[in-house]
Fold each of these.
Amino acid sequence: MTQDTILDLITDGLVTIVTCAAPPLLMGLAVGVIVSVFQAVTSIQEPTLAFVPKILAVLLSLILFGPFMLTTLTEYFQRLISNLPGLLAPK
């Protein structure tokens, strides 16, 4: 296994991680910003007001983007397993 092969595996894995983690994180970020602006405008400083909408938004995004995330992870592992004999063969 060469350094280029290892770097390609790491890069592909990191891209897959970012692709799968982005939807819930971005949804939580967007809801967090909206709630923060709402709290600043109305001067309401209730801590639970910040957490509950973000948790619900992340759960909603997991429901909406779950099939996409599962497909992405499944394709990544299928590529990894199909290339495994070539990766382990001594050169």
Amino acid sequence: MILGIGIDIVEVKRMEKWLANIKLLERYFHADELKIASARGSAAALFLAARFAAKEAFGKAIGTGLANLILKDILVINKDNGKPEMKLFGTAEEALKKSGANHVHISLTHERDNAVAMVVLEGS
């Protein structure tokens, strides 16, 4: 059963500005996301924009927005086949449990200027 749906869009230019502020990046992104982004070179902003959109979409799917969520507790990575997956820790894992959901579905897409993410929460 679907327990929540969230969608968000992030302008890539926003992340381009953030790349100059490591403290800001460390506040919102999991260390593994930052490591992968740094290896992406000129595509780092696009990579981070999609992940930030996913974090926002998760908050919307939970129904609380970003209240009481530490965004670096949400890790968005790609499996070997390229499919994105969301791993939750701390505040995000707790929010998922409170929602009654036990599975997170995620989809990411992006163009030059924008990144979009959709999150669907599934539970019994």
Amino acid sequence: MFNTIVLALDGSEGSRRAIPVAAELARQNGGRIVIAHVEQDVAGKGGAPIPITEDEIQAEVREQAKRLAADGIETSVEMRNVILGGPAHPIAEIAEEANADLIVAGTRGHSPVAGLLLGSVTQRLLHIARSPVLVVPPSDRS
């Protein structure tokens, strides 16, 4: 059913929660995973300190791909860079190029209203992706 799964990873705890879900679906269906990571230019984002560097996130993404491959799941990594518009469109493009049957993405746990106001990447994917999107919610749902 799910031969190709795109797993959107951004280094956040929300995206990490999506990893075991994508892995289990790939195992059940003998599918492969394409990890999608989009680097965003953060210039002009208010000057808030970033706790982890993009290099560290990319290293984490590559390490996760190695772990999935070591577990017997065919895994590849697609990385893109975006300056304007956020990562949803590049993730959707990666899914389309990979002929994905499913996109798996986590959420950061914003309330539905906050998610709308903040322009959640996952919410945007739900609107623009041609593939179905499986959203992994936060584990501490209230």
Amino acid sequence: MDEVVAALDALGVAHELMDCDPDFADTAQFCERYGIAPEDSANTIIVAGKGDPKRYVACVVLATTRLDVNGAVRKRLGVKKASFATADETSALTGMLIGGVTAFALPAELPIWVDSAVMARERVVLGGGSRSLKVRVAPDVLLRVPNVEVVEGLAS
């Protein structure tokens, strides 16, 4: 969590930190409890490309869309099979728990693909690095994060 706040501060961008009850960190429960429209909530999902070596990518998609793991993500990774990373893989790779994963403070070598629909929102709420924090930012803030690429059709 401290790493996420430090990463945001280092970017020098406007952001709002939102405390969250960890029991309500999952997107649907969070949106309902805190009055956030699901279309203004974005999930950061780690995907594992099967191969040797295994390849990972962080994908940022709106909560109202579905990440195209077996189409767009698999093809862009250049692998025959891809799947959602397990909770253990996600934690080991990012240091974050499911429900708190964010595009901020990820490992430098991890590519981050942002679905173009995210960029159309005025503001989005993302994980804050832990299940007890969320971050609200203008989507263009994501363009300042290293390794970010906006991808058309990453989700549907």
